[in-house]
Recover the amino acids of this structure.
């Protein structure tokens, strides 16, 4: 069998349940392979998940991230064609955006442009949604540019928010949507980059 044409690197900072859903979805895929997992956090559970799946995983420091050398070397060693952010909390540096124009995708746990920007991640987002009295929230999958949560939106899906829902109820609904949709949206974005979503 010919080797997959598209090779993904997943950047993640924590638990990695989205990374896991993506890894499982593309296992045995004919044209897309998850080839590398990268984390800024040496304690992140995503590293264990990668290891369990037989995928190479590496960590990097803030300094290594800021300078192009190490990351570009690692990404080119694996012939990475697309980058997927899955619960990754640092702003993507310009050198990566230039190297992967329109080929970096992110998932955000709210309906952007609401509840995005610096400092808005994980449970903080759901707490802000609750505090604002929103009646719905959801997920946004978007291309990455040099600003937080700002690139072209590929896909959104929503969850109802009722008075009885706590931030952790909201988180559960959002995470289920993420696992259901992120792998498929990545697949269609790669296959037809201009029309995904
Ligand atoms: C996900 O809900 C993702 O949308 C969010 O972090 C969580 C990671 O969960 N990302 C952000 O908040 C980025 N601003 P996971 O590690 O279990 O995939």
């Amino acid at each position: 069998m010919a080797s997959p044409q598209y090779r993904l690197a997943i950047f993640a900072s924590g638990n990695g349940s989205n990374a896991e859903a993506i890894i499982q979805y593309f296992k045995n895929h004919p044209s897309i392979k998850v080839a590398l997992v990268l984390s800024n956090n040496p304690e992140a559970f995503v590293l264990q998940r990668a290891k369990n799946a037989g995928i190479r995983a590496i960590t990097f420091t803030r300094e290594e991230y800021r300078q192009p050398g190490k990351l570009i070397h690692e990404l080119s060693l694996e012939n990475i064609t697309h980058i997927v952010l899955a619960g990754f909390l640092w702003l993507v540096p310009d050198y990566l955006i230039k190297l992967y124009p329109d080929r970096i995708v992110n998932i955000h746990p709210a309906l952007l442009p609401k509840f995005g920007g610096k400092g808005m991640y994980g449970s903080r987002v759901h707490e802000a949604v609750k505090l604002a009295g929103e009646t719905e929230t959801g997920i946004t999958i978007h291309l990455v540019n040099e600003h937080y949560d700002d690139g072209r939106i590929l896909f959104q899906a929503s969850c109802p928010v009722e008075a009885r829902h706590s931030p952790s109820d909201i988180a559960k609904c959002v995470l289920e949507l993420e696992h259901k949709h992120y792998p498929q949206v990545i697949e269609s974005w790669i296959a037809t980059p201009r029309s995904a979503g």
Summary: The chain has two domains: 1-101, 107-192. The chain has a mean pLDDT of 95. The first helix runs from residue 17 to 26. The chain has seven helices and seven strands.
